[in-house]
Amino acid sequence: MRHRSDIRVAVLLLVCALASCTSGTQLDRAREAARRTGKLLMVEFGADWCLDCQVLTKQLNEPLLRDYVSGHFVVYTVDVGQFDKNLDLAKSLGVDVGQGIPTAAFLSADGKNLGATNGGELARASKDGSQTLYAFLVRFAEGVTPPPPQPPSSSE
């Protein structure tokens, strides 16, 4: 009987250890890194099947963007799967992945939510090239947040 109890405790500890690796805990680590370094936190939502997400990742690894981003942002990437993972996290940060991915939430070093790219800004920037993405991130980091997307004008 004692042996079964020990196994249950071991399984419970293993489950708790695995639970500590959830996105919430990892996000807490990213928030702490942003706070400690005084950088902005960019929480990027995407998926490995998403072509725009792949382009964004490639561009973020180009020397100009990589150097700028590493100097100004802590980047935390969140997998949304087939729009069936981490949706509560996205919603809690003001991100609507239903509008498309890649998208991101930006937080100040002190954790204040600065906004999200729910208007396809990252997808457009990745399609328009590295310079567009660089300019977008510079504007954001410099505190000049891009205007919200405007609804299409209707002809009367």
Account of the 3D structure:
- The protein has a domain at 38-141: Glutaredoxin, CATH 3.40.30.
- Helix 6 packs across helix 7.
- Strand 3 and strand 4 (113-116) form a beta hairpin.
- The protein contains 7 helices and 4 strands, in the order H-H-E-H-H-E-H-E-E-H-H.
- Residues 2-22 and 144-156 have low confidence and may be disordered.
- The protein has a 4-stranded mixed sheet, with helices on both faces.
- 51% of the residues lie in helices and 15% in strands.
Note the topology.
Elements: H1 2-19, H2 23-37, E1 40-46, H3 51-60, H4 63-72, E2 73-79, H5 87-92, E3 103-107, E4 113-116, H6 121-128, H7 130-141
Parallel strand pairs: 1-2
Antiparallel strand pairs: 1-3, 3-4
Helix pairs in contact: 3-6, 4-7, 6-7
Helical content band: 40-55%
> What structural class do you assign from the helix and strand content?
alpha+beta
If you average the pLDDT, what whole number results?
A: 81
Any low-confidence stretches, pLDDT <50, length ≥5? Answer: 2-22, 144-156
Count all strands and give the number: 4
Instruction: Strand order, main sheet: write it out.
Output: 2-1-3-4
Which characteristics define this entry?
156 residues; alpha+beta; Glutaredoxin; 4-stranded mixed sheet; 7 helices; 4 strands; 51% helix; disordered C terminus
Summarize, please.
With 156 residues, this protein is an alpha+beta fold. The protein has seven helices and four strands; from the N terminus they run H-H-E-H-H-E-H-E-E-H-H. Helix content is 51%, strand content 15%.
